[in-house]
């Protein structure tokens, strides 16, 4: 008999991580520390977000969810659904899926994304897990678009001259300073509220020098990004897949430009400055997660690393 209950991290985490190892480690190897961070070790986690399926005392399934109350309407995310190989095709996945959607609805969620969230494993369903997508498609999900993770090898990287030459003379791309902190947070709060918590964490842990800003002489800060690397004090498994990408992989953090300043080359200049900083720090690869801008980042030599099926549905 299969029973279900709320996930209890202090008792269940090792068993559930072992479940990940059984089901996914051959394709998506992940450390226990990263698994813990994404599931419960981040500010978005709330008790009751995740459910486990048990056969006796053995955990044979997990569904992980997240609710983002700051979005309007309230958005939920289905982060992960795992069933032990020996228990698949017995309806356990279907029951976990149904309970997850019901739980999200009870918590006020109007729209659910398959993947994604504040901290997440994948932004959608990885294309290299076709059986996973078949399951979700059979349970009412419809593909709406594709997104991508990109990588570039940093050996030999130089920023093309035109990247900075095309900027207006009033625009400066520079490393942030301590006195910029309040302006950076105000910028994120106004233009990219979904990223505000990430910048708060970076700045609170002494990472202001990891932030790169675009400053306009009359308007102040008009764009931001930050350098991601695992040696940073604020690091929180921000790149989940170092086991695949290599430990000497850094990345470009959330990058955004104020709407009224777009189409002027500022965003690409920010990306170039971060990429250059990763080179200067001696890293081997640069990673960009969850983007659609293949050709845009391609100007800096980035190429597709992974592809994802994206889907949303109403509760």
Report on this model:
The chain has 315 residues and is an alpha+beta fold. The chain has two domains: 2-141, Aminopeptidase (3-Layer(aba) Sandwich); 150-310, 3-Layer(aba) Sandwich (Aminopeptidase), CATH 3.40.630. It has ten helices and 15 strands. It has helices at residues 9-24, 32-39, 92-106, 130-138, 161-165, 181-191, 196-204, 242-245, 266-280, 294-298; strands at residues 2-6, 50-55, 58-68, 75-83, 111-114, 125-126, 145-153, 171-175, 211-216, 220-228, 249-252, 256-257, 285-291, 303-310, 312-314. Strands 6, 7, 8, 9, 10, 11, 12, 13 and 14 form a nine-stranded mixed beta sheet that branches. Strands 1-2-3-4-5-15 form a six-stranded mixed beta sheet. A hairpin with a 2-residue loop joins strand 2 (50-55) and strand 3. Helix 6 (181-191) runs antiparallel to helix 7 (196-204). It is elongated and about 70 Å long. The two termini are 28 Å apart.
For the structure shown, list the relevant keywords.
315 residues, alpha+beta, Aminopeptidase, 2 domains, 9-stranded mixed beta sheet, 6-stranded mixed beta sheet, 10 helices
